[in-house]
Amino acid sequence: MHEGLARAVDEGRAGDRLWLYATYHCNLTCTYCLTESHPRIADRRELSRDTLVDAVAQGRALGFRSVGITGGEVFMLRWFPDALAEVASLLPTVALTNGTLFGQRLLDRLAPLASLDVAFQLSLDAAEPEANDALRGQGNFRDVVDAIGRLRKHGLRVRIATTVEHRDEDALERLCVLHRELGVPDEDHVVRTIVRRGKAAVEGLGVELGPHDALPELTLTAEGAFLHPFGPTVRHGVTDVDLRVAAEPLPLAGSLEAFLAAVAQLPAGDDVVRNVR
After folding, report:
1. Is the terminal CB of the chain with fewer CB neighbours within 10 Å at N or C?
2. Is the whole model's pTM more than 0.90, yes or no?
3. CB-hemisphere CA count at 13 Å for 22?
4. Radius of gyration from C-alpha coordinates of the chain
């Protein structure tokens, strides 16, 4: 592992996962979206397939131990299933998705990934359709629950991410009962608070992100490298650059050096509280 990265990870200043925003294009329009992604977005800010795969190859050489790929909706990219197989053959990978596009044709293309270390992280915010769909769109609950079953039937690992504005333990327990019934164990369920960035900031939702609330993890987009996945947010069509550390994502070694210079200013130690993940 790159000496500086290894030291930052050991000191608790940074994580060893590399994040990539593949596209800001999406088929949904969620109320709290960090990137204002929607079906008619003018600037999709896509990473090319070659850039995405090359970034992961460079990340592996530098010592990153896993990869997260997000959007937008990553499966809006026709080439993404094949690129995901390439990436997952290099490093353990989690692909974030809204779970609405898993028809049989796409599932057939994903079948080879069952033998790789890859997980599909679907967003599901409540155990009741009305509560879930209020922020994510009509019919989303039905589509996601159906997708979980379809993916698992094909031998693919499923994770669930729940994003809430206010933590309601009773509501979360009902959701946990549901995801267990669907075959998703507790260790594959992530719960996080809505972060007041991007569209959520415009809508007045969520909590302000403090400088030490999110674990720094080098995050690449078409517009450069950022401190963590909550960094490259969009408001009124304009990307926030307050958490950008480099204007170009590649070469990764350059972005990593800029990232490490930024995290060197943050507190070290296992006692550092990270409230958002």
Report:
1. N
2. yes
3. 29
4. 18
